[in-house]
Design a protein that fits this description.
- The protein is an alpha/beta fold and 313 residues long.
- It has a single domain, classed as Alpha/Beta hydrolase fold, catalytic domain (Rossmann fold), CATH 3.40.50.1820.
- It is 38% helix and 18% strand.
- The chain is built from 10 helices and 8 strands.
- It has helices at 4-7, 10-22, 32-46, 101-111, 130-145, 157-168, 194-197, 206-217, 253-265, 290-307; strands spanning 54-62, 67-75, 83-87, 114-118, 150-155, 178-182, 242-249, 270-279.
- It has an 8-stranded mixed β-sheet, sandwiched between helices.
- Helix 4 (101-111) links the parallel strand 3 (83-87) and strand 4 (114-118).
- Helix 5 crosses helix 6 (157-168).
- The longest helix has 18 residues, at 290-307.
Length: 313
């Protein structure tokens, strides 16, 4: 049994306790509607506001048979070297434009890049591959806007979507120039590594993940489906330069390690950071936990570098 009293510092425990006060660990047993209400309330409690140099506009992408809501963040003194597409976390059933609003605003402020947050469809109303289809449609929309390179970023479920889009667009004339995956779930082997060592981690457990999988798929067989689990791909060549940032105390951390090894084995560029003493969802802790603040700076620097075609690793 992993002893988290030794791995997590007092700041991180305070973050976990604050999160649990709004989003208790047994929330996974609530109805989806109840989970969304609890999650949205928690996100509001952590909302840090907008930096003064950033403005946002809510719009929509016309995807033919549907509209995909987006929020566009712009800096008053923009760096137009790249556009960042951001896919939010939430287990494919939670979250939206509000849940990661301040994260995207701060990413815009600190990089100068235009950031577009994508409000992809959620399960169970829209089963897999609806979220992936929206994520891919958003990428195609971004490449049609202008000549700026497009960088993909996302956390948790959003990291899964970013990676899935990268795999699907390797042959695209305007393929992504990079991807920054933040504690992503990539469909790794659930019988080894962090899935075992951190099965009962604070903030995310293997039981939670099984629930999200069932809800996302409706029980359908997704074995071998790369759009569901990018680690199921047999070919990791020609992917964009990749930076993966995992949390040490998270069942998903092995996914980052495994994915990076596969990319490098097939000749690609990838670097994996496993943030010591951090837990799943720590982006919300970036203003109250020193380790999370440091990691968010690492994320910002990765986005900035990849957007300029640089590889400082």
């Amino acid at each position: 049994m992993t002893d988290y009293t030794k791995l997590l510092d007092a700041e991180t425990w305070a973050f976990i306790e604050k999160t649990n006060s709004y989003y208790p660990p047994d929330t996974v047993d609530y109805t989806v509607a109840e989970q969304r209400a609890v999650y949205n309330r928690m996100c509001r409690e952590f909302f840090a506001g907008y930096p003064k140099d950033v403005a946002a506009e809510t719009a929509a992408i016309d995807a033919g048979d549907r509209q995909i809501p987006i929020r566009i963040y712009r800096h008053v003194s923009p760096d137009n070297d790249a556009l960042v597409l951001y896919y939010h976390g939430g287990g494919f059933i939670l979250g939206g434009l509000e849940s990661h609003d301040d994260v995207c605003a701060e990413l815009c402020e600190r990089t100068g890049y235009e950031v577009v947050s994508v409000d992809y469809r959620l399960a169970p109303e829209h089963l897999h591959p609806a979220a992936f289809d929206d994520a891919l449609a958003a990428f195609e929309w971004a490449t049609r806007r202008d000549g700026r390179p497009v960088l993909l970023a996302g956390d948790s479920a959003g990291g899964n979507l970013a990676a899935a889009v990268s795999h699907a667009t390797r042959g695209h004339e305007r393929r992504p120039v990079g991807q920054v995956l933040i504690y992503p779930g990539l469909g790794g082997n659930s019988h080894k590594g962090s899935y075992v060592e951190h099965a009962e981690a604070p903030m995310l457990t293997v039981r939670d993940m099984a629930f999200y999988k069932d809800i996302r798929t409706g029980g359908a067989d997704v074995v071998g489906d790369i759009t569901y689990a990018p680690l199921a791909d047999a070919d990791f060549a020609n992917l964009p330069p990749t930076v993966i940032i995992s949390a040490e105390c998270d069942p998903l951390s092995s996914d980052g390690k495994d994915y990076c090894e596969r990319v490098e084995a097939d000749g690609g560029r990838c670097v994996w950071f496993n943030e010591k003493g951090l837990v799943h969802g720590y982006l919300r802790a970036r203003h109250m936990v020193g380790r999370a603040r440091t990691s968010f700076t690492r994320i910002v620097e990765a986005v900035k570098a990849l957007g300029k075609g640089e590889w400082p690793y």
